[in-house]
Amino acid sequence: MENITPMDARLALDAVDHARAQVVGEVGLPRWYWWLMSGAWLVLGVVGDIGPQWLAVAATVAFGLVHSTIASRRLSGRRRTDRLQVSAETAGRRVPVVVIGMLLGLVVVTMAAGFALHADGARHPGIGAAVLGALLVGVGGPDILRLLRRWARA
Amino acid sequence: MTPPRFDDLIHPSTRLSLVATLAAADWADFGYLKDALSLSDSALSKQLAVLEQAGYVVTERRLDGSRHKVRAQLTAPGRTAFDGHVAALRVIVGDASAQPSSGAGAAARTSGSRAADFIRSNKST
């Protein structure tokens, strides 16, 4: 220990933080979650727009049930891959809140897009808005979550 | 808070990064560790064996489909030794009052370049 200079110790601490940051980078949700969510977004939009009301209600309830089942296992963000499991301490407790907040925000965006398309005289505003929401979730989901986590320091 | 205790077994850069990675995870797959630390199979096996012999790490062989996968996990003594080592490094740096960096934000803000220098300078260890 006598041979360790403060500079050596600082470099060692940086290596520790670097290793930890790499693990933190693994916090998130699996890719299939985003594609599943994107598909559900689209289906709900189509059913809500052209399907009967009972089907829209049933699809929404089914979506809620499936999502809550997945969420209870994956929303902590600790099991994005099957290569490691991030510790609860490292992942923090705010990831589920950020994910739910993000999804609610995207619902608002989808609704706003639907109203805008409706006001513009589109024939199927619900489908148009759902396509937008599905694209945002499917393609941009991981990046949006990463950005929100950075903002929320989660 | 764990009392500072410099650990010669953990300090070599490769082993320190390996233990730090495992300290942030519940478990990690051999392949993940190999990629994260840019090590060969044999080099990683060697480092894991040293840590396992010291009782700091346990490895578990699991059957995944037709392939065997190895998972490594830090033990409680390993975590205590790591925390003590980090505390000792902070004392050396003169930053003993600082809390160990925790949370995603703190870790993500860290520059990797100096860490990479440290790893390069000790690569032979």
Description:
With 154 residues, chain A is mainly alpha-helical. Chain A has one domain (6-152). Chain A is 77% helix and 2% strand. Chain A has 6 helices and 1 strand, in the order H-H-H-E-H-H-H. The model of chain A has no long low-confidence stretch (mean pLDDT 89). Chain B is of the alpha+beta class and 125 residues long. In chain B, 51% of the residues lie in helices and 17% in strands. Chain B has 6 helices and 3 strands, in the order αβααββααα. Chain B has a 3-stranded antiparallel beta sheet with strand order 1-3-2. The two termini of chain B are 29 Å apart. Chain A binds chain B through residues 1, 4-6, 8-25, 27, 78, 81-92, 149-150, 153-154, and chain B through 6, 8, 11, 13, 16-18, 20-21, 23-29, 31-32, 36, 86, 88-90, 92-94, 101-108, 110-112, 114-119, 121. Strand 1 of chain A pairs antiparallel with strand 1 of chain B.
For the report, how would you describe the main beta sheet of chain B? 3 strands, antiparallel
Count of the separate structural domains of chain A: 1
Structural class from helices and strands of chain A? mainly alpha
For the largest beta sheet of chain B, what order do the strands appear in spatially?
1-3-2
Oligomer: heterodimer
Q: From the alpha carbons, calculate the radius of gyration of chain A and give it in angstroms.
A: 20 Å
CATH class of chain B: Mainly Alpha
Strand content of chain A: under 5%
Provide the descriptors you would attach to this structure in a database record.
heterodimer, A: 154 residues, 6 helices, elongated, B: 125 residues, alpha+beta, Arc Repressor Mutant, subunit A
